[in-house]
What does this fold into?
Amino acid sequence: AGWSLALLGLTTLIACSQSTTIDSGEESTDKTLSPYFIVLSDNEDGAEQLPLKSTQVNVNIAGVIADVNVKQVYSNTGNKPIEAIYVFPASTRAAVHSMVMKVDDREIIAIVQEKEQARQTYETAKKQGKTASLLEEHRPNVFQMNVANIMPGANVEVRLSYTELLVPTDKVYKFIYPTVAGPRYVSGDEVENGTAENWTSNPYLEEGIKPTSTLHILLKVVAGMPIKDIRCKTHKHNVTYLDKSTAQINLNEPDGGNRDFVTEYRLAGDKIESGILLYEDPKGEKYFLAMMQPPKRIENKMIPNREYVFIVDVSGSMSGFPLDVSKELMKNLLKGLKSTDRFNIVFFAGGSNVYSEESLPATEKNINDAVNYLSEMHGGGGTELLNALKTAMRLNADDSFSRSFVILTDGYVSVEKQTFDYIRENLGNANFFSFGIGSSVNRHLIEGMAHVGYGEPFVALSKAEATTLAAKFKKYVSTPVLTNIEFEFKNFEAYDVLPEKVPDLFAERPLIISGKFKGQATGSIAIKGLTGGEAYSHTMHVNNNVAPITALKYLWAREKIRLLADYSNIMHDNETKNEIIALGLTYNLLTEYTSFVAVDSEISNSTGSQTTVKQPLPLPQGVTNMAVGAAAYKTMAPVHRLKRADKLETMELIVFEEEEEILEDEVFVTVEEMPKFMGNSDLKEFLDWIQLQIVYPEVARKKGISGRVFVKFDIDEKGNLVNIKIVRGIDPLLDNEVIRILKQSPTWTPGKQRGRNVKVTFTVPVVFKLPN
It folds into this structure.
């Protein structure tokens, strides 16, 4: 019976010294796959810990299409060859179609290969001593760049190109460049069943430390019609109007890489770009993209009674600004309900709990009570979103009420696909609306939940946006703009059309239909539906104006891949996987199963020996250390957990800050008598005793080695402390000191269960803090 150490590692601060973050080039053997903090060193080796020096982003927006070019500069300021690993986010709609590596004056154009083949190509070049780069997709919005054999004093540039479609909502166009991938919570089940991903064990800088690489962004908008206004509320910037329809924004905050860069603009007259774009690929295929103006919102007073279940993330990463915004948003949403509506709240972190067993009428008293209860919530623990959704779904539902789930989270989880599947499977039971709370949310999760739930994603970047967002949400969910949508092609031979079925629209945003066509670019596309209970129809005519808009083929292929992969079952069958691979290779796109790899022709490192360095990421602005783990050594709340079994001879106790969820295959038990240290002292006093016994090894002190050692041991049926094992160490000097102390431990009183002595297994942290 036992827990995976991953659960412990995710809820406790891991303060790592330089010696634990730079390895010998092998993949990490850390089975917890947890994010951890890095302590930067001032010695000569410490220079190697920050290989990424700068990111330059050039954005050109023409009409509704954004072309983005990203240049990353890696530099080795140390004295030995290194391999740099950098995890970074991207837009959920990005179609990455090009990568170029520059070494000295040589440019190497990357090729797309199947993922495993690309990894092998890279590893071979790495061993041969050739400079090489590998771009892999871990999630549609999380990429990893590996650059091998960066020699001392050398610089390596990697340029990426992608395109994305800008779809305005309520007449506002928005471009988002995510800057940092927030830490992801990984559950013990993911580690045990092998679905957890290595990128989640990335190092982070502690709260308040600025990004160590610079960020430069230049964005240019060529709208084709007068621009009413353009602004960026997230970063310091300069705006320049080149003419009435052309403007550019220059980022003026080089250390702003700890939050999303967001630019919004509107066109004169609040117009929305609409029409049909056409492109004929030299290889023979023809592509179209139709963007249709939606109808005006019609207020419908015949709204049925509604039930809102608010699913609120109170995990560690929500501590501070995100949870404050969430509370403010909830307050405004609740107070905007009608007295005939009902509401309930599900709070989730490592587990989940329900505010009320049954949904309550939205009376002033009930709302005030809920707001007061919510104000007492504090962030802490893991992020078990999927189980929170299941908890909400198990609540008693009333068929006479229109039921909606409102999910408020920063999305720092790694179970996106399982969540998408669950929402899609339950669309008949509830509507799903997602709010991202934080400066750098997991947009793949937020937008994905909205996508499969036929809803609109909302993201509150700051407290100032909470009130506006609440008002917008109330208007948004009052009635859909257009339902029962159907489209028809007349004298226009279209095929491979996406989406196959258009969902209901809840916001005033264009309908987007893309696909391929044969023959002449003539005919029309008709759209029909219901708005406010009344029939609606609109027809767009196809003109024969084929333009050199190469992005159309990438955008179509990316959407096709997204429908196949992003929102499908977690385990793809071979047919789906092969189709994604074929699309990636055909359209030269980065996908879950295809990667970009570039290899220099010259050998720069004759020995092939190098040190692997993971580029530490800044914590997203407003996110506290709790996103990675507990910020200090505090009183701990033991949870007793036992695998489902007939016998209760053995238990395993793991000490951590927050209670984890009760998994379906396990039960919680209460130990009638926990083992007592020195006859009557509890575990906390034992941990305090350990700290007092520490003799800091002089060599470790001089080297600046510090952090936490996690040690596992048993208190057997006779009260003996036995089976000591270091499960996560820092350095042999510190590890051995822990073993020395435990071997000198005084006697214990054994634990009891059902009147019998039982063996209890503990896993605890021992803190080594450098003396002042």
Notes: The chain has a mean pLDDT of 79.
